[in-house]
Design goal:
The complex is a heterodimer of chains A (about 210) and B (about 425). Chain A folds into 2 domains: about 60 residues, no CATH class; about 100 residues, Cytochrome Bc1 Complex, Chain D, domain 2 (Orthogonal Bundle). The two termini of chain A are about 35 Å apart. In chain A, helix 1 packs across helix 2 and helix 4 crosses helix 7. Chain A is mainly α and about 210 residues long. Chain B has 2 domains: about 180 residues, Alpha-Beta Complex (Sulfite Oxidase, Chain A, domain 2); about 130 residues, Sandwich (Immunoglobulin-like), CATH 2.60.40. Chain B contains 8 helices and 24 strands. In chain B, the strands form 6 sheets. A 5-stranded mixed beta sheet of chain B has the order 5-4-13-8-9. In chain B, strands 6, 7, 10, 11 and 12 form a 5-stranded antiparallel beta sheet that branches. A 5-stranded antiparallel beta sheet of chain B has the order 19-18-22-23-24, with no helix packed on it. Chain B is globular. The chains are: A mainly alpha (about 210), B mainly beta (about 425). The interface between A and B is large, with 82 and 92 residues. Strand 1 of chain A pairs antiparallel with strand 5 of chain B, so a sheet runs across the interface.
């Protein structure tokens, strides 16, 4: 029974990873084994570094994490929009945020740097990307929100308000020709943006052995 | 025995770092480390006979011999930067902790271990906050394995603009090996009770970039560790103090340092570091994503630039070979530019996802030649030639550059990077 459960789980994982290929929809939730998580018991006997003989079912070290704590730390934003906060911002508002907080490093128009140009670039259908900018290479617009909240602006990471963050994302996407001049982004519209590079990423098909990929 | 080439006395070579400077071999910015060695105190020349004076007394913390100054190669003062391990100055397989390579995306955070907490939540039955004392109370394991940045070795890839005056450190120094101690991630996931349907996790650091990567749950449940010790002591701040994620055999970026949060999910989060970075563009217009595993690779670390062979005769070619797919099963060495190959001796222990040191005894006849190494791993994978990798991925691919490396030994004993006719 446990063996069967594990097989189902591993199969689900393979399907999930395969789902990252070109033309596929974004990875969907997958169903593992039925009922609880029995496969974990099985996997616990399989790992490279198993627990010692006689270990209890649960040690219960650490302390329970409350909802408040989790909410305060759970900052990531996913392609389906999960994690996006309330707020909104327009392209015009974004121009001001860009000038104040971003232009010094990325350039007044986003193309000149000196660091990591975010605007322009291209990715020919049968060739290599030029510049790996937001417009040419980033597959998900939501990644901008996730990353800015974590790491930007570099000297004061995480200090832009939600409205400012949506606005500057709108400006970056507009300068890349992805959203219109009058676009307003929020938790609903940002995940709906389809990036030019959306379907260009493929799963890792290297497997070792004699086939070089 | 042949006469040492002009300007290359045996003594100069034996002085290693300072010898390279004395011999005038150091010319590039990549070798600032070598130029630095020129500042060694002149007292090296006038040491007192140690049998005639009492020695120094014991001390709380030891130091390297004054003449031994291996240092990391630092090229940038940006907070997003890297430093490289001096592979040509090391032997065996372990990297001294203070020489472990660095790659930080927003600098090194100052963290007090006693107040550090790790939150594990998401698709789990028991969301939990762990302090370091909690993590250390779990049954621990130790493991010796390498960490390599997937951006390692790019200078040696392609068929144009390949530098010749480049050291093993400047070329492939984003590789280091340590003994790591910590708690298996499978143990912690068992504790929190992963729910049905979970298949990924997001690992997040406590640095100013809050660097985050998605990791398949299968790897997390297999051999991933949360490590808090490195080579016998607390993990270094540069390596993720007080706790980092260790994913044996996988690219360094995914092994999140200063770990503060693990969220169990049913899909990848698609962070910046797994979309716009650490993805591998290919010649067919696609880009490979979640290319975690480091393929088999080897590198001769002696003889190599900037050192020189002062005379012909017997030398031991030495290097490291490693693979993220298990054990190294063999290393072949060529001393004739790739026309013929011979198996090198492999220095044990041979551990999974851990480098081996290889050695090959060679009688150099004093003529110009190219020496090469080629690793094979337990999956049957053979380290590819540059031509083969170019054919598979194209010249402008990024990351995972594991093509065969070579060194040209000139008739005067000088050594430069290059594959000769093989490329």
């Amino acid at each position: 029974m446990r063996r069967a459960a594990r097989g189902a789980w591993v199969g689900a994982l393979v399907l999930l990873v395969a789902g990252c290929g070109p033309g596929e929809a974004e990875p969907e939730a997958t169903t593992a084994s039925s009922g609880g998580a029995p496969y974990l018991d099985d996997v616990a006997a399989r790992p490279t570094h198993p627990l010692p003989e006689g270990a209890p079912t649960r040690f219960a070290f650490g302390r329970s994490a409350g909802e408040e704590r989790i909410a305060a730390w759970d900052v990531d934003v996913r392609p389906d929009g999960a994690g996006l906060p309330e707020g909104s911002g327009s392209v015009a508002e974004g121009a001001e945020v860009w000038a104040a907080s971003c232009a010094a490093c990325h350039g007044a128009t986003g193309t000149e740097g000196p660091f990591n140009p975010l605007v322009g670039g291209s990715w020919p259908a049968d060739g290599f990307p030029e510049g790996r900018t937001v417009g040419s290479y980033w597959p998900y617009a939501t990644t901008l929100y996730d990353y800015i909240r974590r790491a930007m602006p570099q000297e004061q990471p995480g200090t832009l308000a939600p409205d400012e963050t949506y606005a500057v994302i709108a400006w970056i996407l507009n300068r890349n020709g992805i959203v219109a001049d009058d676009a307003v982004l929020d938790a609903t519209t940002l995940p709906e943006v389809v990036m030019p590079a959306r379907d260009r990423f493929v799963r890792d098909d290297r497997t070792g052995g004699t086939t070089l990929r | 025995m042949a006469t040492p080439p002009e300007g290359l006395s045996r003594r100069a070579w034996l002085a290693t770092a300072s010898g390279a400077v004395a011999a005038g071999l150091v010319k590039t910015q990549f070798d600032a480390v070598k130029l630095d060695a020129a500042t060694l105190p002149a007292s090296q020349e006038t040491v007192v006979d140690p049998t005639e004076v009492p020695g120094r007394i014991v001390s709380e913390v030891g130091q390297r011999a004054p003449g031994e100054r291996p240092v990391r190669l630092v090229r940038s003062t940006e907070i997003s930067s890297s430093s490289r391990t001096p592979l040509q100055d090391l032997d065996g397989i372990l990297t001294p902790s203070d020489l472990h390579f660095e790659r930080h995306h927003a600098g090194i955070p100052d963290i007090v271990a006693e107040e550090h907490e790790l939150l594990v939540h998401g698709m789990v039955d028991h969301p939990t906050v762990f302090r370091m004392a909690d993590l250390k109370r779990y049954p621990a394991v130790s493991r010796i394995c390498f960490i390599e940045c997937s951006g390692n070795g790019g200078a040696g890839y392609g068929d144009t603009d390949i530098p010749t005056e480049i050291t093993p450190q400047a070329l492939d120094g984003l590789l280091s090996t340590s003994e790591w101690v910590g708690v298996p991630l499978s143990t912690l996931l068992r504790e929190v009770g992963v729910r049905e349907g979970a298949s990924w996790l997001l690992a997040e650091g406590r640095d100013a970039a809050m660097l985050a990567r998605s990791v398949p749950l299968e790897k997390a449940l297999d051999d991933a560790l949360l490590v808090y010790a490195q080579n016998g002591e607390a993990i270094r701040p540069e390596q993720g103090y007080p706790v980092r994620l260790l994913l044996p055999g996988w690219e360094g970026n995914a092994q999140v340092k200063w770990l503060r949060r693990l969220e169990i999910t049913d899909r990848p989060t698609m962070t910046r570091e797994e979309t716009s970075r650490y993805t591998d563009p290919l010649s067919d217009g696609t880009a490979r994503q979640f290319s975690f595993t480091m393929d088999a690779k080897s590198l001769i670390t002696f003889p190599a630039y900037p050192y020189a062979l002062p005379d012909r005769g017997w030398w031991e070619i030495r290097g490291q070979a490693w693979t993220g797919r298990g054990r190294i099963t063999g290393v072949d060495v060529s001393t004739d530019g790739g026309r013929s190959w011979a198996p090198a001796r492999i220095q044990g222990p041979v551990l999974s996802k851990c480098p081996v040191r290889f050695r090959h005894l060679w009688e150099w006849d004093g003529r110009e030649t190219v020496i090469l190494s080629r690793a094979t791993d337990e999956t049957g994978y053979v380290q590819p030639t540059t031509r083969e990798l170019l054919a598979a991925r194209g010249e402008r691919t990024s990351y995972h550059w594991n093509n065969i490396r070579g060194w040209k030994v000139a008739a005067d004993g000088s050594v430069t990077f290059g594959l000769g006719e093989l490329l």
